[in-house]
Amino acid sequence: MSAARPRPAACAALRRLRAARGGGGSQIQGTPSTPRKSRRRKSLAIAYEAGQGDGAEPPSAPWEPRDWQEQLERIREMRRSRDAPVDEMGVQKCYDTSAPPQVMRYQVLLALMLSSQTKDQVTSAAMLRLRRRGLTVDSVLQMDEETLGQIIYPVGFWRNKVKYIKQTTAILKQKYGGDIPSTVEELVQLPGVGPKMAHLAMHIAWDSVAGIAVDTHVHRISNRLKWVKKETKSPEQTRVALEEWLPRDLWKEINWLLVGFGQQTCLPVNPRCSQCLNQDICPAAKSL
Questions:
Q1: What is the mean pLDDT of the chain?
Q2: How is 26-72 classified by DSSP, letter by letter?
Q3: By the number of CB atoms within 10 A of the CB, which of 39, 254, 269, 279 ranks highest?
Q4: Are 201 and 187 contacting, i.e. CB atoms less than 8 angstroms apart?
Q5: Is the peptide bond before 8 cis (omega within 30 degrees of 0)?
Q6: CB-based contact 239:40 (threshold 8 Å)
Q7: Which of 93, 161, 196, 226 is catalytic?
Q8: In angstroms, rounded to a whole number, what is the distance separating the alpha carbons of residues 84 and 261?
Q9: 177 burial type by CB count under 10 A (0-12 exposed, 13-18 middle, 19+ buried)
Q10: Is 93 one of the catalytic residues?
Q11: Which of 169, 264, 172, 247 is nearest to 209 (CA)?
């Protein structure tokens, strides 16, 4: 049975109702219409890491001197023959390599104490005289100051060094069992031992790299090459400045390289710039 068709009168009434509502909607009067969904695609917010996408500059690379790697390679070339005083008579050549490790370390420390303000040749000769008398903690403790002074003369400031050596040796006997301390912090507490000596003692005696050993040669050359951000006034300031940028695997080598270079070429007075391979890239070459 077919469905009954709507009556014409009903259809007309429905059309009038729709027209009165303003269109062909089918909502019930008084019920709010549901808004149509927008066909626009929603924009996704992109999260940037700090410093990206906000106009900020990327972090700058750590500071390092201009041309330093090439300068270093050229210094290595100039030091290839290993014939500077530090190579033949430096502290690393002054101790008895056949002595027990504890005695060897003590001799290294004594050689470093004697080397301050003293040429390598003079230090080496003084150490040789001490070793001929049997250079140990006990032998130095048994030696009177006058005899010790006669043996180490003419090292720089020999009278003060006699006192420092006796005081330090007594401390080593009492506090360290005749050995030397194994840290920079303890070494610099010993009478007559400064930071450069402490770092070299760590390098040579303990085979440990705790920092850069900076003496007058390293201090002078680092400033001439502009290996420091600004001019430094002391070796200790230079050490801090170098350790801020110089790769750690070079810390042990740099003292040996620059000391010999300073003894032979980059002299304190009248440096031999005409013989230096770095003449064209050394900031100080034209002004010296």
A1: 87
A2: -PPTTSPPPPPPP-SPPPPPPP--TTSSSSPPPPPPPP--TTHHHHH
A3: 254
A4: yes
A5: no
A6: no
A7: 196
A8: 8
A9: exposed
A10: no
A11: 247
- Exposed e or buried b for every residue in 224-234, given b needs 16+ CB within 10 A? bbbbbeeebee
110 neighbors 193 (Cβ within 8 angstroms): no
pLDDT score recorded for residue 186: 98
Query: How far apart are alpha carbons 71 and 67 in whole angstroms?
Result: 6
How far is Cα 247 from Cα 231, in angstroms, rounded to an integer? Answer: 20
| Mean pLDDT, rounded, for 121-125 | 98
Phi-psi region of 96 (alpha: psi -120 to 50; beta: other; left: phi over 0): beta
Which string of DSSP letters, residue by residue, matches 129-184? HHHHT--SHHHHHHS-HHHHHHHHTTSTTHHHHHHHHHHHHHHHHHHHTTS--SSH
pLDDT in tens, 126-167: 999 999 999 999 999 999 999 999 999 999 999 999 999 999
HEC secondary structure over 60-103: CCCCCCCCHHHHHHHHHHHCCCCCCHHHHHCHHHCCCCCCCHHH
- Which of the four pLDDT bands, split at 50, 70 and 90, describes residue 60? confident
Give the type of residue at 173: K
Chain centre distance of CA 264: 26
What values do phi and psi take at 178, rounded to 5? 90, -5
Q: Are 67 and 227 in contact (CB under 8 A)?
A: no
C-alpha 263/C-alpha 272 separation (Å) is 11
Whole-angstrom CA distances from 239 to 50, 159, 219, 253 are: 34, 28, 8, 14
